[in-house]
Amino acid sequence: MNQEFIEALREIVDQKGISEDLLFETIEDALVAAYKKNFATLSNNSQDVKVTMNRETGEIHVYGQKTVVEEVVEDASEMSLEEAKEYSHKYQIGDIVDIEVTPRKFGRIAAQAAKQVVIQRIKEAERNIIYNEFITKEFDIITGSVIRKDRGNVFIDLGKIEAVLGANEQMPGEEYNFNEKLKLYIVEVKNTTKGAQVGVSRTHPGLVKRLFELEVPEVFGGVVEIKSISREAGSRTKIAVYSNDENVDAMGACVGPKGVRVQSIVNELRNEKIDIIKWSKKAEEYISNALSPAKVLNVVVEEASKSAKVIVEDNQLSLAIGKEGQNVRLAARLTGWKIDIKSRTQAQYNMDINEVVKSEADESEVIDNQVAKDQSTQEQVIETITQE
């Protein structure tokens, strides 16, 4: 080790952002291990060893450490007070004495051990730098380029790292071509022994939320608030918005002049349909809005079961339910309510049936009461005759 080595270490410290103290301490620990591996004998293998490196010159010294005791039991790790006094009169029972044991041929081995530590620390530092950069982007949008496709996965170049867009995070029907630029939502960032791992998605509702925040200044500034999103990626999304300023139309702000804002997002999502609805703290109104574009006649909610019964015109039933139940399914997820939809005719039929059932029940009750009354009268007559 020499001064040039020390200067090289300090340059690495500056470039990679590694702690200088930590780097030197780690090198010294590695030199201890290297000494024990190459120079320790069976007789002194249990001896405590300390290695120091001069941080200006790079000079290395190895010390065996022994504890001062009244009676020596273990020669490798203990020494008597009398022997300790030969090194210095200041030593007392219980003190640690450092005895230099630096081998003459230790320099080459030390350099090799130090090199391995430095390489390892550089790799760790680079991993940490990348992790720290991407952890700040978690739950945000990032743009990457398609590198390759393999076994259904799409590999994305994010600059300093590759990310894998798994099959379940890809939008149905979306094609990914080499060098194509993609906007991706960072779902998770992990710091592993192999480096930072970045989980990305094209299907996450968070992608839609961040696109609106980037495209709509009122959303980015907090004037318009996104209350909820339900999404079936590649097909349709419902987004509930609310304005914190009565002078700002939440839906209008998201749509934009001539629809340019929402159309930009639709284009990014490969023509995925987006329903922008007005959020309301009144459950009936919120549920009615969520079933857009269908027009709702009536909503009755049951708080205990968090369920709602909805009535629409006959010609609005299929629209309210949606293809394969998509519209009502998205509305239920958006609002958090179970939604049962019936047409006016179905509701009227059920009402009529209920009236008939109620009428029959009432009639049955009258008959039962009359039978009971007649039976009571007969019992009274029989009792009178018996007494006579």
Brief overview:
The chain is of the alpha+beta class and 388 residues long.
Low-pLDDT runs? 356-361
Strand content: 25-35%
How many helical stretches? 12
* CATH-defined architecture of the domain at 3-133: 2-Layer Sandwich
**CATH class descriptor of the domain at 3-133:** Alpha Beta
* Gross morphology: elongated
Radius of gyration: 40 Å
CATH superfamily of the domain at 3-133: NusA, N-terminal domain
CATH topology of the domain at 3-133: N Utilization Substance Protein A, Chain:P, domain 4
User: Could you describe the largest sheet, including whether it forms a barrel?
Assistant: 5 strands, antiparallel
Family: Belongs to the NusA family.
Subcellular location: Cytoplasm
Pfam families: KH_NusA_1st (PF13184), KH_NusA_2nd (PF26594), NusA_N (PF08529), S1 (PF00575)
Domain K Homology: 233-292, 304-376
Describe the protein.
With 388 residues, this protein is α+β, with helices and mostly antiparallel strands. Among the domains are: 3-133, N Utilization Substance Protein A, Chain:P, domain 4, CATH 3.30.1480.10; 137-201, Beta Barrel (OB fold (Dihydrolipoamide Acetyltransferase, E2P)), CATH 2.40.50.140; 208-279, K homology (KH) domain (GMP Synthetase, Chain A, domain 3, 2-Layer Sandwich). The protein has 12 helices and 15 strands. It has a 5-stranded antiparallel β-sheet with strand order 7-6-5-8-9. Strands 1, 2, 3 and 4 form a 4-stranded mixed β-sheet that branches. β13 (296-302) and β14 form a beta hairpin. α2 packs across α4, α5 runs antiparallel to α8 and α9 (283-290) runs antiparallel to α11. The protein is elongated and about 110 Å long. The termini are far apart. The relative contact order is 0.06. Residues 356-361 have low confidence and may be disordered. Participates in both transcription termination and antitermination. Its main location: cytoplasm. GO terms for molecular function: DNA-binding transcription factor activity; RNA binding. One of its GO terms (cellular component) is cytosol. Pfam families: KH_NusA_1st, KH_NusA_2nd, NusA_N, S1.
